[in-house]
Batch of 2 targets.
Target 1
Amino acid sequence: MKISELSERSGVPVATLKFYIREGMLPRGEAVSATRAEYGEEHLARLRLIAALADVRGLPLSRVREILNLVDAPVDDPIETLGRAVGALPPYVERDRDDHPRARAAIEELGLTYDAGFTAVAQLEEGLRALEHAGLDASPETLRRYSDAMRQVAASEIAPVAAMPLDEAIPYAVLGTALYEPVMLALRRLAHHDLLVKARDAG
Amino acid sequence: MKISELSERSGVPVATLKFYIREGMLPRGEAVSATRAEYGEEHLARLRLIAALADVRGLPLSRVREILNLVDAPVDDPIETLGRAVGALPPYVERDRDDHPRARAAIEELGLTYDAGFTAVAQLEEGLRALEHAGLDASPETLRRYSDAMRQVAASEIAPVAAMPLDEAIPYAVLGTALYEPVMLALRRLAHHDLLVKARDAG
């Protein structure tokens, strides 16, 4: 398809497409004449990934570029590549410290894998510190409740990823992490609301 | 305690405490002389709530104030009050439309309560639209997987709230919603990572 059709089908203005191409975020089309390039489904898929990260989740362009670079040039270890790509998603926490005492204790207690370089470890540390500061319960029993629910969710989420080649697995893992999060959190709030309404109506 | 001690114990500078008092976000201390006011544990609790919302979750001051106003002057219906308070938390989505076709269908399918005024309905709508646009699965079976996990989590979370008087239940529900979210999401990412690592080591 021509760039005008790519624009129409993706909803992205031609000027923005040209910006993405200049920035190396979108591959050039295949030149079919001196003045025309041809774009394909892979360009549409790339634009969906950019839109989900930049527009829906509001990632800064530098983070979107970091993820796209990993899609285009994965590092040697697939788990490391996936970890870095997902690590470019918010929340952004300080990462220049490598002691995560609360997270380390919780991860060991819960039987998960502790890897100080994996961003979610620092995110958990920050989350646990906030609970502690607010005086909320962060006991092993309470954390296990969340961890059990998340393991259950993660097990069904990870199944398709394991079967994919890495260049598909990275965008899928990033999109899946980024886009199911708000859905899951909305469902948690709806479950609270539903329980309160049903308790009132029963009382 | 004196304002200087309140500052020390809360970690909030005296100038900021005075700002909160002027803005009506923190109650005045009890005047014990013309130049001294006495502060108590309730002031510390209020400062913990403000810090969790403003510093940890990064809420704009207008949203923090909205929540504090509901704590101080709840509306008639407790569920409505809780809904408004939790609705002041991010993510902030457009709320001037009252059709939520995707969310409505999902909520009915999942057996939850549909209430167009409850912010999580609009948040779910936006989340489902993003999944659709990215070409990710939002089938009833997939949503049920998240919903089941969230119901399970919510049931144990809601138990203490139901037993509290409203002026305690509001800050508790707001803090609990805001501060367990990042912990739960970090645990989801850690569960993904753990499953990939274990599958690699077993393979």
Target 2
Amino acid sequence: MSVSLTDPSRATLETFENPFPSRDYMIETICPEFTSLCPKTGQPDFGTLTITYIPDRMCFELKSLKLYLQQYRNHGAFYERVTNLILDDLVAVTAPRWMRIEAAFTPRGGIRSTITVEHGRRP
Amino acid sequence: MSVSLTDPSRATLETFENPFPSRDYMIETICPEFTSLCPKTGQPDFGTLTITYIPDRMCFELKSLKLYLQQYRNHGAFYERVTNLILDDLVAVTAPRWMRIEAAFTPRGGIRSTITVEHGRRP
Amino acid sequence: MSVSLTDPSRATLETFENPFPSRDYMIETICPEFTSLCPKTGQPDFGTLTITYIPDRMCFELKSLKLYLQQYRNHGAFYERVTNLILDDLVAVTAPRWMRIEAAFTPRGGIRSTITVEHGRRP
Amino acid sequence: MSVSLTDPSRATLETFENPFPSRDYMIETICPEFTSLCPKTGQPDFGTLTITYIPDRMCFELKSLKLYLQQYRNHGAFYERVTNLILDDLVAVTAPRWMRIEAAFTPRGGIRSTITVEHGRRP
Amino acid sequence: MSVSLTDPSRATLETFENPFPSRDYMIETICPEFTSLCPKTGQPDFGTLTITYIPDRMCFELKSLKLYLQQYRNHGAFYERVTNLILDDLVAVTAPRWMRIEAAFTPRGGIRSTITVEHGRRP
Amino acid sequence: MSVSLTDPSRATLETFENPFPSRDYMIETICPEFTSLCPKTGQPDFGTLTITYIPDRMCFELKSLKLYLQQYRNHGAFYERVTNLILDDLVAVTAPRWMRIEAAFTPRGGIRSTITVEHGRRP
Amino acid sequence: MSVSLTDPSRATLETFENPFPSRDYMIETICPEFTSLCPKTGQPDFGTLTITYIPDRMCFELKSLKLYLQQYRNHGAFYERVTNLILDDLVAVTAPRWMRIEAAFTPRGGIRSTITVEHGRRP
Amino acid sequence: MSVSLTDPSRATLETFENPFPSRDYMIETICPEFTSLCPKTGQPDFGTLTITYIPDRMCFELKSLKLYLQQYRNHGAFYERVTNLILDDLVAVTAPRWMRIEAAFTPRGGIRSTITVEHGRRP
Amino acid sequence: MSVSLTDPSRATLETFENPFPSRDYMIETICPEFTSLCPKTGQPDFGTLTITYIPDRMCFELKSLKLYLQQYRNHGAFYERVTNLILDDLVAVTAPRWMRIEAAFTPRGGIRSTITVEHGRRP
Amino acid sequence: MSVSLTDPSRATLETFENPFPSRDYMIETICPEFTSLCPKTGQPDFGTLTITYIPDRMCFELKSLKLYLQQYRNHGAFYERVTNLILDDLVAVTAPRWMRIEAAFTPRGGIRSTITVEHGRRP
């Protein structure tokens, strides 16, 4: 399987204005169909991303999130790097009051890993 | 499917007097049969609302809550707006000491979202 | 169904001395077979009561609790009132350091409710 | 809620040619977001349809099935009638070797029902 | 608790015409809120009834089934007798092609029982 | 722990007349609190018995079943023998049309066993 | 069933030296096969003990714990007393930095209880 | 996403000799990480394949199966075609006594499908 | 990890006389702690064996079964061979009326397999 | 089974540089296939390790972790010692900001234990 090493572009991500910016509220989005490639072996990895945030002025649009995540399908990166990259991209386009991403990968060699990264302090 | 864009009316909501106003206690109401329409595509959305509150002087009546929520059946609004609107309406008619609404929607395009909004500070 | 509106009597409740009053400890009692009547329609309601407390000098006896709760079988009262009444009765006979009752009722019209009431502050 | 009593039209259903007609094989399609109205009370009903069939020359297309089922959203019919109607429509457009529909509705008044209808004999 | 020993009356049960008598199909109705009294001790019993049948000319109406079953609330009878009685009554008013009732009672003294009775032979 | 090796007596088992002998029907009784002793080591064994039968003229009474099974509490016997003995005793006192006992024991040394014995042929 | 009322002896409990006393760490031991007798009726009670502690200089040995708990098999005591007694005995032999016992008993008369006792303050 | 329409090659599949050809026995292989593309929209599909067979002279090797299935990652085909193709390829290389493939795809538009295809008659 | 290729010896297996040879009955033994080595890579495999049989004159003893299975701990063999070998050994020492072994292995590379082998015909 | 008493070597553990050292984030790794030997009886123990940490400059590599843990396969040590040893080794090679290991072992004699050890204070 040919592995792309160029980082996916955050330009695909679209946003819309938070309809209730006066209130702190939470949006949790669960994406159980995330897949990328291992940069060492070229083998596919599979995981479930749970993105939780308190929007400030902007929310990300769900269909554009799906297309953004599909860029990882033939992209090679380790678990830790992938999860931190996605957080950086989502923070860059929405500038949230708080955001957390939990990425739970399926077992390899009888071992499975979950990476949890956070931006800001939960109010 | 023809989509109504007029906001549902909170006039349908009936209340009764809190029988134990001297005590802080919690009421949780789970409505797994909530449905509305996507304002962009006209396609139905489905979700489970969990409404939790500490009543002050008034409680909402369950049958009138059901009828109020049924107004969203042919109404078009995005997840974030719907959840905040319902919170505003329930707060307006019951003026609770604290209230939280969690709206968990079913998957679309392999992605599902839950919106959690809160009024006041949980004692 | 003929509905009784006289409140059940707490006289049925028996107690025994707490065998370890020097220690704060917790007793949780789960009663999944609670049933009462709706005072408006006469229709039966069903629920699960979870009673949790830290006893002071007295504990309630389980068989007498069962008989006390059976008095609600043909008694008419709304969810909120029933739950607060039972807390008042159990507090009156045991004077606990802390007590909480969670009453989870089965769905009606696609909606289900849970009432949680508390006496004192959990140490 | 205004209730339509005209039967939904099977004209919305689209089909495609069975790619492997030489082999008896089974297709199971689960639709957990079915909703219609009670013709007596106008109240919404909710259910999960499980459609299983062995195609002959034609298969039904999934997006058109979704649109066909959405016609029931404001349509009034009892459980038994709805389930048999949908079977008649799907049989009319696909002429399958065998088909079964199981419709599991959510509880009303503490009681829930499942209707199972079948066309032809499972080979 | 005062125990009635007169058998409930099947007169409460209402029926409607089977809308598709030309087809053998199955109706399963689950009633998790059944309760009766033990004729020996007067103590309440609780169970879940699952009624499955292939209607011939008549179906039973669900609301009238609920009222019929509520007659057992203060009625005293053993598990085996209750289950057979209900089958006899439902068969008498609907004359089905086949019917089965499974009654699963909650534990007493660490032991729980399920009674399954059948009328006719499943086609 | 002192182990008794005398077989429990079936004299404790009480029966009552089958109220509907004209109909073949099934009674399933689940006893999750069975315990006996290992005759070799004196260590306790724990298991769940599921007794299923079609009564002929007699049914066994549940409270007497509980007392009968309690005789095994300090009795020593291997899994296979215990299960066959109980079947023999229940068949001797009820002479059923058919009976099956499934005894599922908890793990020992990382291994768990279930013994299933049957009397007669299921109609 | 003959009920012994002499309290079990803690002399059966053996200990070993904590191999890492320099570190606060937690040991949780789950015993789902606990059984004792009701001192009033002589009937067996069944429960699951969860013992959690932070050892100081000594840990209890698991096989000796099993033998210690088996002394309750023919011993009569109420739930609250049994749970507090076991805590006292385990604290006496191990002098832990913190210990908690949760004893979850199986249902009797449709009601089940869990007793939670604690020694010291969890660091 | 660029969609390949050339069918994956069965040449990747490796086999080994059935070590016990004298005995009919069953091998079930579950692959929860199958993914392909929709030929119409280019969007990814995800599913779980359960392959069950009775080998004759040859078994397929698991690592080569994984590589064979990865060829579908950027390949476009509808559910029904994909499932039948995989069966044809596995039958071609192993010539089993019997084989069945069940392909359960994740929900799209609130609807999910499972395709089951079979080769030969299960002995 | 050094891999032994000599087959484990069935001499470890002990048997006892079937106490009820006059009756066909079933014994199911579940061993969730089976482990062996992959002969190619030397990596450990893990699985759950479910052994079900109808004994004739002999039953296998559970402790000796545990010791027999532990011989596979450092033994190298593929799934299919291991499962058939164990069946051959157990059949050789007990000569049962019927026996089946189901071996469910944990996932490797996202794929998991279950092998089911049978001796004789289930009566 | 021959039991090795030499402690496994941490030299097998490989690390890589934390790609995002500027951010506190959490890595959870679950290893359900851990096995060692009891030093007293030589019998195998089985457990699930959950390793959670906040990396500082180094992360441990997953394949090397698997090989490190496999050294325990024929190694004899008690639960408490094994868990603390593994923590010491992982802390020695990664010097994390915080680390916790939870080791949940399978039941022995009807009793199961979980050991939880921690290094540093969770930020």
